[in-house]
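Input/output pair, single chain:
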Amino acid sequence: MFQCILLAGAMATLQTAQYSGVDLDDLVATPHRSIEVVATSAGRDLVDDPAELSADGSARVDAGGHLSMSVDFEPGTYALSITGRAAEEAAECSLEVGGEPAWIHRPVVLSGEEATHAIAFSVESRGTHNLVLGFDGDALVSDLTVRSFRYTPPRPPMRPELAEARPRIFITEEDIPRLRERVEDPRVQHFYRVPGPRRAEPPAFVGTAEAGQYRGLKHHALAYLLTEDPEHLEGIVAWLDAAADCPGFDNDLQYEFILRGVALTYDWLYHDLPDDTRRRTRDLIVRLSRQVYEGIIREAGDFGGGNFQQNHTWFAALGLMLGSAAVYGEVPEAEEWLGWSLDRAERIFLSFSPDGGFHEGAAYWDFSMPTLYRLVDLYESFTGLPIPAGDDGLHGQAEFRFRHLLPGLEHTAPLEDTQRLWGKPAVRVIAWEAKRYQDPVVMGIADLMWEEPKPWSFKLLWLDETLESVDPRDALPTARYYPDVETVFARTGWDDDDTWLAFVSRPMGGHKYAELCARYRRVSGLGHSHPHQGHFLIHGRGETLVDEPGHTYEKRTRDHNTILVNGEGQFGDGVAWPQPNPGRAHITDFVSEGDVLITVADPSSAYPEELGLARFERTLAMIGRDLVIVHDRLAADPAASFSWLLHHYGEISAEAAMWSIARGDARLLVRAHKPDTIEAHTTTYRPVYTLQTRHGEHDTTPEGEADINMLSLVTPSQEQATFLVSMQISDADETVPEIAHGSGSNCDVLRTEDVAIAFRRENGEMSFETPWGETLRTDASCVVAHRGEDGRRIVALPAR
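Output:
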């Protein structure tokens, strides 16, 4: 099939990682990591009194009680596996190692079903240490096993000349004079300004939010390097001293946030910090890095585990890389940590989408892509090696993000977990790609996304002010198809009142990552993907007329503009975090010529087999800025009812099989030409925007328009159905041309005075009359015949 060919081609171009030696044929192997059982105790060995054993030999522990075992340890990282169950509802575990409480990022809670849980911990000194496992509820434990984890870097993870330098992360001492020259350049000042001293009081650590405030500390550290103003250093030292005693965090992202600020500041200002501040900051970086490493070893969802295309994996790898690089050469563990983070980064690069696309949506692109770019920079800087793969997909990311912008270029389409009315991408992120690939069009995107000069360090570090800038509106085609993440973007032009369209039909994560998930059966990272294959959005006359709710926490097919089968949706329907599934939805055809687009998708495999969906072929055509047509061919065995869905935030009125949706000064006129028998329902409802987690309630409820409107066209139960729906885009008070539905030979035809669009019914030749009176015979599957100011035009989708 199409996607298998794509995957094979993508894999054939990838290299073996030069640092770790892994490749896609063994992506989850860890040849340089050793895992050894250090000690194990069955339930009967954990109690002195046989009366404390259950019938199956498990050790009984009362609430408030504990189990203990003495173990001979070498310094290193370990994990205690606990196999057991709660005697009643739940029992949460705690652990002491040598009398000190172990840090536990995610609570370990035994349920009523026997399962194995793990707590990772570190031992700093050789000797016999007593492990004491406590329980806050009655529990039954059948086994405790301690394993050691050690990663032995295959080569030094940092080049010797860099290991001896300060600073060494992103910049070196040799870079500083040039940076001071650059900030005087007007072109640089167009994007970047040096911040003033940090005079705000540092926060008290009472939760997790404070870590995010430390991300900005690096901006002031760079400002001190640029200006040597002692006021900068004074504020920085106050913040570092305040952070020195901060606890660990229960949110894995917070580690990267604080390490990004603290580790970079420690490295950049190493020789300028007071001795006591340097020591305490080093101890903080070591403690936080150790906790990140323990979290990754545990691989319990947070810190990414093996989910190489999930943003948590990227953030964990970068946090560990920054922390270990900052203290490299000062603590022995740093070499193992840095080697492990480079190893993780290689797997991220190897599994990255090759088509310039990204599967988590534009908002998570904005959030995550700077992290990936930093991983690329640091990997190449520390190792002296090029990344083993990924450049084919990295070059093109700016354009992909740019294509999410609606006409007006101010707001972003709410695809995947992106909130409605999301804004533009950050200039510094676009500038990274322009600089790396010396791409004038990408630099043109950065110029077009211009914002007031900000004091952000990477706005300076990632900017190449000497690069020529080319306006992307002059250089880029108006439509683009992304074959791995199976997304089509099209627009009739770049003016504010042009029409824009997006169309998605993909395996969750894209073809490459979906196949990797299937191959290794434990790779995930699709939590921000939606069960929405066959889904489309339309923006015209300054308004989004076919819309969706965006970032929700109960991801439902019903929230998207696609098909339900007997009211049921696709794989992942109704869950907060979809997981890998066998669906391999794909776009089968795409043709774009001027302001005419025809594209076809097959989302059928995105639906669970038990629904009996045998066929779902969706053809979507855009003819100029005034007309979009959807043609769906459906089949089910056994017979099923099909629901055709369209969402909007406008005011709707109905007349027969026609619906007028008004929003602002724009209108969408929807006509159902087929099937002959449908029930139409208009509904207003609120999607699920909230999720209760151990971190508190997540809430993405939009301000103002939380409820969305849905038009659903429902067939009776039948084995086959065809939907033919036209959507005319106009100003609110504009008279639109009539659309006539007729038939040609072996085709359905929709006509206006200047347009005829024909959809072939069955294989073979079809014929129909063009707007200029000629009979057109063709074996194409879809044809648009258009008469406009620039003459006659025929755009055809060739037969397969």
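Residues 1-14 have pLDDT under 50 and may be disordered. The chain has 19 helices and 36 strands.
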